[in-house]
Every structure is written in C-alpha cells, then in structure tokens.
Amino acid sequence: MSTVTKPVAKSSEIDSKSQPATEVYAVHGADPEVQAYGMAKYSRSALSLRESLAELNEQKAEKFLNTFYFQYGHRSIADLAHIAFAVERLSILAATILVDEPRWDGQERSTRYQDFQKSGYYVPNFAGDTEAESRYREAANHLFAEYQHFSGGMFDYLRERILKPEEMKQEAYERTLRARAFDLSRYLLPLAANTSLGQIVSARTLENQVSRLLSHTHAEVRGLGELLKQAARQGAYNVNQAAVQRLLEEIREQSPEIADRIHPVLLHEVRAAPTLMKYAEPNAYEIESRRELSGAAAEFLGRLPIGPAPLVDLLEDEPLEVELATTLLYQCDHHSYRQIREVVEGMSAAERDEIIALGVKHRSRHDEVARAFNSGQHFRFDILMDIGGFRDMHRHRRCVQIMQEYTTLHGYDMPQEIESAGLASRYSQTMEGTRQAVAKIASRSAAEAGEHSQYLIPLAFRKRTLFKMDFAEALYISELRTGAAGHFSYRNVAYAMYEAVAQKYPSLAQYFRVTDVREPVDLLKR
Q: Is the pLDDT of residue 4 over 50?
C-alpha cells in the first residue's frame, strides 16, 4: 500500500484569510513568578499564555525557575515578573540609596506638596554612646523646629508680596504659596527625615537592589535590604481581602461546602518572588571593591585640598583608561572630576592599570561589572548642587550617575527669597551649628560615627555627582528641568548644562527648547 504525500503549499499560495488574526490581551491575577514562567515558556512551548497559565501553579514555577534561572543563569526570566512595593518610614538618606537603580520606577513623598514636620526622623544605633545620641537628637530636633519656622515665615513673606488674582480661589492661592514656601524651607530638612515611597520593579532589578542594599555601609540600608527580601518572599497585601471575606461569609451562610471550595481560590496568598529572591545576598564584589578603591583614593588624593568647582562642569574627552581610573576614584572621594583626572593623568600607565584592575578584581562569574565601567559617553557633567535639588535630578534614569557620599565639605546653598525675607542670619546660624554637630559626632571613636553624622546633614548642603549621557538625554534634561514650574535649584543646573553644551557645540544650541531661567517667573503658575 503506497502512501500519498500531499504537496506543501508555498507561502505565496497560503490564503491570508485562513491565518489567525493577531491577538493582544492584558493579563491579571497570576502570581508574578507564575506569570514570568508562563511568558518564559514562549521560548520552549507553542502554547498560548492563556494555556500556559491554566496549567501552571506555584510548585511548577518554582521547579522551572530553580532549573533555568539559578542553574543555567537565565536571569532575563526575572525581567518578566514585576512587583509593586510600598516602602514607608525610611530616612531620606536611605531613600536616595534605595532608588539608585538604572531600571527603577516609583514615586517618593514630595517636599513641595507635603509638610514633613510630623514625619519624624531616623535615629541610628549609637551602641550606648549616650552623649553622641543626645547631641544627634538635639541637632535633629532643632532642624525640624527651624523647618517649621521657615515654612511659616516664607509663606507669610510670599503672601505679602504676591497678590491673589481675582479669578483664583483662596484655597488654591494658599495651597500654591504653601508649596512654594516648602520649596524654600526644605533646605532645613536633615537627611534623617522620614519619607515614604512606592516602587514597581522587575524581580531582576529587585534582586540587584536587595544585594546592593545588603552590601551597604549603613545599618539602616542593610536592614532595608532584609525587609525587601522578606516582603518579596512573604504574602503580599491584598487590597480586595476584606471585601472577599465578607462575600465568603455571605456564601457560607447559604452553602458552607461551596464556601470551603472557593475559599482557597478567592483568598489565595500571593507571594511576589519567593524563588527569585531566595539567593539575594550581600555582594562581596561590591564590598571588597569599595574597600580597596577607598584605600587607593586615600593614597593618591588624601593630601590634595579640595579646590573650587562650578555648579556644572562639562568635561572634555580623554583616553578611556583615564576616564575609567578617574571614575573609580571619584566615587570614593570628594574632589572634583577635574582634580582627580589631573592626578590620574600624572600617574604611570602601570598605576592607572592597577586602579582599573581593582574595579574588577573581586568580580565573580555572576556579577555585572561595576557602574563605574559604564564609560565612553560623550556628554559628562560633574555637578555640584544642593542635596534637595539633586534628589530631583537623581530621577533621570537614562544616564549613568556616579555619586559621592554626603558631606559638609562643599558648603551649602541659600535661596534668594530667604535672604530677601531677612532670615539669612538665622539660616546661616542653623547651617553652621549643624555643621559643627556633624563634625563632633563624626569625630567619635566608633567606626560608625561618620555614617551616623551624615543623617544630620540638611538638604541645603551640596553634593557632587557625575552624570554621563548621550546628546538626546542632555537635551531632554535641559528642556524638562528649565521649565518655569520646576524648582529653582535644578532649573539653574539644567540651564547651566544647556549653556555648557551650547558653548562647546554652538551649532547644536538651536535644537534646545529651554526656558531662560533669568526671566521672571509667576509663582502662582508654577
């Protein structure tokens, strides 16, 4: 008996009407890890996502992830599991470290629209050093009292000078002026002030974030890493739980058997990433690299006085090995990039190579290379600005940011309005008094004293950060951050970025749609 094989139709002969139409649908209700597993199956199965999710459960997902994620290193799978977290009552200092992720999405409490007077503040563990703790609390309480005083004082000052338009409601007028007053009084808030934030991140970003937090020098930040890891592995908050429980009670009155059957389905405990997070641990690569690079920075830069620096410095190009060595030292120091680069350029090639080697010496097979190696961008800005304004600039993720630690070495900024209101003397006394308190606590013998003292630093003090980006991002930041609705601090920085690019590349200036910060601004329209 012969077998007749039908000819296969060529692609040109296939009736397009017989082809299934493209289908797009949103997915809701699956556990993050189960959903990630289901999407990952596209590469290993012809099933649709509906079919994959229908046959999956937590046990199957865990088995799959243990095999392909941990054994074969397919970390991209974790990009498919996105998780929402609330992180509440952490210090501003810890918050800036938490959100320092290139692939981070979230929102933090605004110092413009919220009164931080009742937020409280973080107190480090002084391990029995009652004198240091007493000085810390005294300084923090004083800053919050001054914050309250300046919030009220600047509101009164603005109300006296800015008349309410007839068409504007009194409530909107006062709300707008109070936001402007908070823009000014926020300079008195210490880094210890409590804040809250929400974040939505992939499990892969979360794993990197937790590992980085667990590797940090500050105890609060390490504790935050443990809490995030714990939250990812335990049951998540269910916004519908109370309503579902009431419904189950009603059903139980009519049919206990049906209620028992649907109870585990309706009140299923969702754990965000129990498998993907179980191996998130402190990163030895980061810890050891920080230790050795800090030693190198002290060796080469320890005796060099910190020189004056502009608000924004657009850096010239240099050989890649010079940029790498300079950036690696920059993150462990407080000098400007130019000062450090001058030292690096004076080194022998062997010394530069030794510094670069320290940046990868402790890297394991699974470690991503350190952020300092994200080099080669054409537009690099060394920015020295107040901490409050930096927190706004820090939100830009499409660039590389190399941060230096918080310090009082660079002085502080004073808004012009505070001087105009006759409060400059009181403001300066508060800043100088806080600087002395920071120095006294930092001089204590305890190893953590320097870390503890950082929490007292007000947002007025300046912080240095290296921003590396392409032309499109330089254009975007300059346009967005010079807008009249923005805070004057980052408006000045963004405009200085534009001016630096325009000076270096005059023909490109025409493509910037910036707002001239020298023009007067109607504060009621900000």
A: no
Rounded to 5°, angle at Cα 210 from 325 and 71 = 90
User: In terms of pLDDT, which residue wins out, 14 or 273?
Assistant: 273
Segment (H or E) for 427: helix 424-442
Q: What share of the chain is helix, strand, coil (3-state, %, to 5)?
A: 55, 10, 35
Distance in angstroms (rounded) separating the CA atoms of residues 208 and 370: 12
CA–CA separation, 70 vs 179, rounded Å?
49
For tokens 């493509």, the residue is 511
Beta bridge partners of 52: none
Q: SS3 for 134?
A: helix
Task: Look up tokens 């005294």; give the residue.
Answer: 138
Contact (CB, 8 A) for 406 and 461: yes
Which CATH number describes the domain made up of 284-412+460-525?
3.30.70.3180
Decide: 428 and 414 in contact? Cβ < 8 Å: yes
pLDDT of residue 447: 79
Average pLDDT of the residues of the chain: 90
Is the alpha carbon torsion for 91, 92, 95, 100 positive or negative? Answer: negative
Question: Is the CB of residue 439 less than 8 Å from the CB of residue 457?
Answer: no
The residue with greater pLDDT, 427 or 63, is 427
- Count Cα atoms within 13 angstroms, Cβ side, for 213: 26
Domain boundaries, the chain: 22-75, 84-235+413-454, 284-412+460-525
CATH architecture of 84-235+413-454: 2-Layer Sandwich (3.30)
Q: 387-425: b or e for each residue (b if 16 or more CB lie within 10 Å)?
A: bbbbbbbbeeeebbbbbbebbbebebbbbebbeebebee
